[in-house]
Specification:
Elements lengths: L4 H11 L6 E2 H7 L11 H16 L5 E4 L3 E4 L7
Antiparallel strand pairs: 1-3, 2-3
Helix pairs in contact: 1-3
Length: about 80
């Protein structure tokens, strides 16, 4: 499975915090977008792409949205 640089950074960050919510603000900061527009959907699109790639290895996708907060990694996935 191939990940882009941004996909890898987000996946690595979420995987380090299994079952803990990582906020949208933390992820935007990681992606060097410290003051994102509230309606910026780029993170949602990125998470969706990552989830589809990971689901191809071990369905369902391990990343879940936490409404109004961020995202959580719900299962362990080996990152190579």
């Amino acid at each position: 499975m191939k990940l882009t640089g941004k996909e890898f950074l987000v996946t690595q960050t979420l995987a380090k915090h299994i079952n803990k919510t990582v906020t949208r603000a933390q992820l935007f900061q990681l992606l060097e977008k410290p003051n994102p527009d509230y309606h910026d959907r780029s993170l949602d699109v990125l998470i969706s792409r990552i989830n589809k790639k990971l689901a191809s290895l071990n369905p369902p996708g391990p990343i879940e949205s936490v409404r109004g907060s961020g995202y959580v990694f719900k299962q362990k996935v080996e990152i190579k």
